[in-house]
Amino acid sequence: MTKKQLPLDELSGAIGRILGLLLTEEKVDQAVQNLSQAIKESVPGTIGAGVSILDSQARRTSTGSTDSIVEQADHLQYELGQGPCLTAWASEETVLLDDVRTDPRWPEWSAAVTALPIRSVVSAPLMANGHSIGAIKIYASEPSVFDAAAVSLMELYASPAATLLAHIQSAETPKRISEGLQTALHSRDLVNRACGILMERHKITHERALQQLILQARNKSQSLQEVSAELVAGIPADRN
Amino acid sequence: MGFDNNEPEQRRRLHAALSGAGITTGTLWLQYFSIGGSVGEYEVEAYLQGMLSLPELERDLLAMAANELSNSGPGPHAPYSDEFPLDAPGETDSPDDGPASP
After folding, report:
1. What is the CATH code for A22-171?
2. What pLDDT does residue A138 have?
3. Looking at this predicted complex, what is its ipTM?
């Protein structure tokens, strides 16, 4: 097996992926919160707006909403597994709901939200790189508040918002993982320096040196890092 | 493609150690990388699934990484290549399990 020198980028990506941190909630959550507010203020008649980012199993990874009514209506959708936003996300098409009480498409959800001041809904999918990553939605307390113009406006919003959100997700990854990466690289560096000392001292290959370190660690019941650190510490810095 | 004589058994017992201690492949790889391992995460995954052969040193580093992670755990230990009888020409599926593990 040849030795590979992984570039830092690739390494960061790999570690981020394995630690499951590609979605970093903190800042994405801030972004979806701001986005919700902006949408609410820009579509006439809207009483509440929300943004959800979903993973491939339709689980919410980040959400933002302007008020608790949106939150409740949203929560019910994911609990019941049906609703306009889930449809928008899954079908990758914008959903216009004229009146919650007469639309037959999501019977359980419609029944569940009758207590909430929600009659009209528009939900548009967030499409980034050809994938649906979530949905944005607006609610109004009266029926037939939204029309084709509101649908266009939502679609206009959805496109840059999706691109932006996808970017935030990937841009935040290296920062979140840098600590774990530093620890890993520091340890690896230590082991390699110890190998170098053994190679020089015994005129052996890198591979052989690493094998010796493993053996020492096992014999002393220490970690490879501890054995390496002792070896490195035993060599005064000024004596090559 | 060739596996070393003891490779399947070493892999199987690494697997047992990992599941015994609840260690994921990602965690194992990061530790393995930290102590000087040189193959990628995908290769490690493939090795664990028996689809790829790894050199002895890399296998031992994986065992070491697993043992360091499960430190003081009660689960099975991941064996090193010198814990197997040298050069046993016998087959990979000889069922005798237990030699040489202190």
Report:
1. 3.30.450.40
2. 93
3. 0.80
